[in-house]
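Researcher: I'm preparing a figure for a lab meeting and need a structural model of a single chain. I don't have an experimental structure, so a prediction will have to do for now. The sequence is pasted below. Please return the structure as tokens so I can convert it later.
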Amino acid sequence: DRLPTMATEYRVSGVAAAKMVMHAAKHAHGEVCGVLLGQAKGGSGGEADGAGASSDPVFVEDAVPLFHKSEGVTSPLLEAALAQVDSYAQARGRKVVGFYQANERNDDRELHFSTKRIADVIREKSTRQACILLMNNEGFTALLSSETRDLPFQLHVRKGGQWVLEASKQLLSEGSVADVVLASISAGRQQHLVDFSEHICDISKDWRNLDLVK
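Model: Understood. Here is the structure written out token by token.
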């Protein structure tokens, strides 16, 4: 691994933020996770640290909710989900740029081992600029209660051979993200959000959630 020469900015859209927050809100008493889609200039591969691969910003444009319970990184269900999401991203001119996780306990700010493994796979196959967004549960509660308009996510990138927490100034919102998130929650749209687990149980349910965020 090599040290980054310039910090990369990660810009999150209202659509992506709303889907992540709605996923956590729908399954408020459990953990959730999903995949981030967008644009990144950095190539794939595992040799270099992500933040140093390119100084161009990464745009997180969409989020695909995967599971609302733990799934092992070797799970056939996980492999099938990642393959379908990757095909979907490519068809829309995007790539998989990261992974998100929300823990069950408010005081739990640790990344799961499986999350790090999945993110490593994303770096290898999609982009070295891949990131992990960990939900800050206290920030999540504050946002939903209108006490703050800050994004309730902690940015992690790979440095020195491990996933580390980055400065909050490198995680930016695109436009009025808080307004989009709060409007979605106020309208109760989280109840209509479908993750991949639910799609497997009922294939008529669309995990793409195309028209969920207005």
